[in-house]
# Entry
Amino acid sequence: MAVKQTAGRDQLGGLAPKFAQLNDDVLFGEVWSREDQLSLKIRSIVTVVTLVAKGMVDSSFEYHMLAARTNGVTREEMAEILTHEAFYAGWPNAWAAFRVALKVYGDEADASEGTSFSPMFGLGNPNDGYAQYFIGHSYLNPLTSAAECGVGLANVTFEPGCRNNWHVHHADKGGGQILICTDGRGWYQEWGKDPQELTPGTVVVIPAGVKHWHGAARDSWFSHIAFEAPGENCSNEWLEPVTDEQYPA
# Structure
């Protein structure tokens, strides 16, 4: 399965379009997708080990740690990898990497529940390009391209407790968003209204101009297909996070 990545274009498309294209289409679209040579799990391990050796434990390292978890590297395996790496890459580098591992894998006895969740339309990659607008970890699997067929469909997966910020889809005419819930259990809420439970088969039509958020229940993974309804001069406005007080128990 080809690895789809848009972080380069999302973050650097305006400044360095060639670098963005090489990052998204060559590094991830070609090199990472050669599973006939190395599995995604092995590639994640190689990448994590290399970054630890170079002392690069920034936001990109957290992305690759998330990818390692998604690609099947268990909590116990990651702990052993970093322990082994400490003797070759340096104790301080390993300590820094463990801090990221604790954030990604958490304090659970085993992280296998997350890696075993298999949404109907695929888990995809860590939603790194929009991570600043989410509490918790989410994953994005693009299904179609708006440039190719006029409508961009994407499967979005939320880990338990993950939700996006309050936000508004703006449009001069038409617009808005449609959610088709496919796996797990989640929540949707419009500003000033009670939360609505989301289960497989639920369809939510969100008109333009409505402030809202959506995400997973505390005790369940959740996936939905999201697509922007056609309109004129459409844009998204990201607002404040959904606090623990607002998030329904």
Summary: The CA atoms of residues 155 and 225 lie 4 Å apart. The chain has two domains: 38-113, 125-238. The domain at 125-238 is CATH 2.60.120.10 (Jelly Rolls). The helical segments are 7-12, 17-31, 40-53, 59-70, 75-89, 91-105, 112-116, 146-149.
